[in-house]
Amino acid sequence: MKGRLFIIGIMLLGIVLILPSAASFAKPIKVLAQFPMSGPVGSLPEFGWGFIDGMNYINAKGGVNGQAITYFVEDMRYSPTVEVANFTRYAAAEKRDEFILASGYITGGLKPLIDKVNKEERIPWLDGSYSTEVFGPGGGPSKYPYYYSLGATYGDQMRVLLNWIKEDSKGKGKVAIVYSPTEWGRDPLEVTRAHAKKIGLQIVAEEEYAYTATDATSQVTNIRKAKGDYVIYHGYSAAPTHTAIFMKTARQYLKKATLLGTHYTTGPYMILTCGKAADGMVGVSCRPQGDDLTNPMVKMSHEFADKYKRKDGIKDMFLYMEGLTYALMFHEVLTRADTAKELTREGVKKALDNLVWDYHGVFGGRGFSYKSHTIPMVRTYRCKVEKEVEQAGKKVAVGTWTPISPWINTDIELK
Amino acid sequence: MRLNEEMTDLIQTLGAGLLIGCVYGLLGLGIVIIFRASEAFNFAIGEFLVVGSFLFYIFFFDLHLPFLLALPLGLLAAGAMGAIIERLSIKPLLGRSALSMTIITLGLASVLRSSVQLIFGAHSYSFSLELPDTSLEFGSLLFPSERVWAGLLSVVTFGFILFFLFRTRWGVAIRATSESQAKAMAFGIDARFILLMVWALSSMCIAVAGVMISNFGALSFLTGIAGLRAIPVVLIGGMDSIGGALIGGLIVGLCEALVGSYIEPLGLVGFKDVAPYLLLLIVLFIRPYGLFGTVRIERV
User: Fold this and answer.
1) What is the 3-state secondary structure (H, E, C) of A293-350?
2) ipTM, two decimals
3) Domain A27-152+293-369, what fold?
């Protein structure tokens, strides 16, 4: 009897000793984030820095209810092939109940992964693509239940721009669209045409503009011939040289026209590469500008950049903030899933589907619901290039993007 | 009235095509002078263009030298780069087939592209020369200043190269080497040095074109894509014809402009990029050595 009691006592003692460290026996939480940190879009390590700093901060603060997140960061080099290969590798190597959330950054990567992500793996996938085809009315949660976008679709961005044009021109604006010969460039065309027709605006020219261009004269003269006075440039970021070629040429030939752009053109790179040609441009953005320190998320990004000593290397705070917002989104949904005691792929999906959040105040305090699988928030900005100043011995254009609208929830306000 | 508008559009299109065509011609010249001297095709032309532009960038934007000083210094640096590359990668292949030299340039392109990304990064550099305004504006006709400068500087550079090749002793030596390396050496010409000089000259031509193209927009390692325009230019004009390079450049420039203005709006979107190659195919069917290339009869 004594012997039995002794054994039971030893076992109980063992359990008591083991319990506090039980968390370390819990299954690991593994996530994958992919960003375009090199390749044709340029060298953008800020994405990765923001994500890594965010994750390190989150883990230092206790991770997901006390458990650290194991994260993998990959440079997908703005290549769908690389993005697909990276994901396939992790999906094969990691256990399904541990690897529960992934992200990507390119429409071209989403498409070949449709079946893999939505049918085979059934893993929630956050993406930097704002594809109308995937996330718009023709796609969305019913068709691609595991895909989520971290912004408003390009179609919605175009609709916001068209609404602005209608208001600015009192309904008389003649719209020209210049787009890249890519899925990204062609993505919102159908929605744009339909919305222009609906609100009574005329699209007078649609010009495809290749990334191999050394000259944009034929595009801008065609727009001039068609008498376009609002030119929407879409399908390229502000960073590459052909954007500068287009902007400079357009500014000379279309002196009275207003140039407009979608999310990836609305930022400091436009001012840096195009200089005075960017003055007066109007753009929509799914994030606040990196210098808007009144915004809590922007302020947090600057504090993180200081804390983790990144400031000197950051060319564009937007990119760093973008990496950080991914880390914060990962943390939020993993924590919600864990709190609901369902820290699985399905549990994370439920947390995303039910998410109603203000995203650390990124949209000026306005919240959003993830029901549409997009973060349907955009804001309209106008660019003002003030002057050129000497910075580290170089002449650099200095300017700002000033908001000219409040944050617009496209799910609500564009209905 | 309508006819007037159409005529204005046509003149605008032709003018824009001719101005950019001059720059393409200069790129073609960079290929032709190397081909004439060694029968090698420099596939690293895009990377030469980028490196040359960055060398100029250092003198003009970083060191703040005036344009008239920065340009020759940038070109000299580009020439020196071309000479060094020739010494390191081409000279060891002397006596081997031209094909091996051509293949080396493919590898060279990779090395230079990576080096540029390593040194200058992959982001775009703002590039605005702000030269005196030479914009030509008549009614709705407009030729922006940087386009006019590009055309002018390309023609002037072309003139310099022609003068050098046809009016100087070095030029005679280069031409003699182009005819036959063995015979030139028999006459006491240092063919190895001539080859070095040819690579330096070619690098300088390409650098001028690079600076002008960067001035249209911005500069990054991706600007090198413009170098690909040289391929249809020299194949249309003739691989070994200096005049053919200029004519080929103008043809490609005009072809792009006309297709962009008159054919693409009909619904053939993206045809502008394909058209020069289509034209090239037609030319090669009719004249396999290009419009002005030397016809070679090879006995088998």
Assistant:
1) CCCHHHHHHHHHHHHCCCHHHCCCHHHHHHHHHHHHHHHHHHHHHHHCCCCCHHHHHH
2) 0.87
3) Rossmann fold (3.40.50)
